[in-house]
Amino acid sequence: RSTCAATSSTHPLLRRRGYSSESAPERKVAVLGAAGGIGQPLALLMKLNPLVSSLSLYDIAGTPGVAADVSHINTRSEVVGYMGEDQLGKALEGCDLVIIPAGVPRKPGMTRDDLFNINAGIVKSLATAIAKYCPHALVNMISNPVNSTVPIAAEVFKKAGTYDEKKLFGVTMLDVVRAKTFYAGKAKVPVEGVNVPVVGGHAGITILPLFSQATPKANLSDEDIKALTKRTQDGGTEVVEAKAGKGSATLSMAYAGAIFADACLKGLNGVPDVIECSFVQSSITELPFFASKVKLGKNGVEEVLDLGPLSDYEKQGLESLMPELKSSIEKGIKFANQS
Ligand code: NAI
Q: Where is the active site (predicted)?
């Protein structure tokens, strides 16, 4: 690695510490739901990532077009589109990382939990295929409700005897991306340098941004912190309402998903000190799954970091989110074990 120069681009997706695209290990990445609102821009962003050598684009419809389009981009990875369930096995075989943005998005007036009935079944069937065709892959779950779909996937993997808690991630990165953007705006600091951990889960009040730990520090009032917290929690709904029936966040989600996938790949490749927030199996609270800062390594989760010091406001937020998060987790587990 020491012989490789970083590329000169300043964009985080293209900037590589310690690898050039020629020397990075071969990595196959699949996007399941690749023809969707998130899937298409995510396919584009993963095609731009020099850590990917093979990009597998799967959906129940539309993937030949997306794959042909993306494949013309002159970057490292070879792109193949797979369509329909009989091609799912080929799409997954040999994968190091599987990203799942498959399923229906929210419309105005819906909560993420309203998506449960349709998306739970989709996630269950995709997880079953992952257990069969690429049981050792890292899984990045984007499909909502993440608070339930991650436990569903865990149960499916347990039944198949392939569960490795270090390899299953609920993608909460968009909450972090939003918290950073909103904080930078309020604190009037350059957004590139901002860090804000977001913990808990990925729906409404279960999203708990820890602005008391935000860097760089800013002297924001309690009212400002409350407003920032609420805006982060309602960020998804802000987009759903603005899109007025045409879906939920897709472009910002694709960005967040690509950043998180990149962090997972860096961890797999042995880059040190890769830390991002994610909803994972956890023992830092009494709940079996919880989002917090996670250190990523060669086997996925290397360490689940604890919450750190919380303000009184955050302590209250933590207490109020626990019952809802608990019931969403239980709902997922129950669904996976029935039928
Ligand atoms: P979309 O409807 O535009 O795309 C979903 C895609 O999934 C479609 O192309 C559809 O054909 C495909 N699909 C359906 N069943 C499938 C199956 N069995 N196998 C493979 N693909 C299948 O929806 P969009 O906007 O891309 O959202 C996708 C999911 O991501 C939704 O559940 C949404 O709630 C979630 N989401 C999660 C966020 C997060 O922060 N984790 C943020 C925004 C959305």
A: 202
Asked if residue 153 belongs to a known ligand binding site, the reply is: no
Ligand 1 center to 149 CA (angstroms): 12
pLDDT at 76 over 80: yes
CA of 207 to the centre of ligand 1 (A): 20
Nearest to 292 by CA among 237, 273, 303, 254: 303
- Look up 11 and say whether it is catalytic: no
- Alpha-carbon dihedral 328, 210, 193, 43, rounded to 10 degrees: 0
**Across the chain, what does the average pLDDT equal?**
94
Question: Using one digit for the tens of pLDDT, what is the confidence trace for 42-59?
Answer: 999 999 999 999 999 999
Tell me the backbone φ, ψ of residue 271, rounded to 5 degrees: -70, 130
Cβ 118 under 6 angstroms from ligand 1: no
pLDDT tens digits, residue range 194-237? 999 999 999 999 999 999 999 999 999 999 999 999 999 999 99
Q: Give CA angle at 17 (15, 23), nearest 5°.
A: 95
Does residue 59 have its Cβ closer than 6 Å to ligand 1?
yes
Test site for ligand 1: of 243, 250, 253, most ligand atoms within 8 A of the Cβ: 253
How far is the centre of ligand 1, averaged over its atoms, from the C-alpha of 255 (Å)?
15
Exposure class string for 221-238: b at 16+ Cβ within 10 A, else e: eeeebeebbebbbbbbbe
∠ CA(99), CA(104), CA(110), 5° rounding?
Answer: 125
CB distance 42 to ligand 1 below 6 Å: no
Backbone angles phi, psi at 231, to 5 degrees: -65, -35
pLDDT of 333 reads 98
Q: Record the pTM.
A: 0.94
Q: Is 332 buried (19+), middle (13-18) or exposed (0-12) by CB count in 10 A?
A: buried
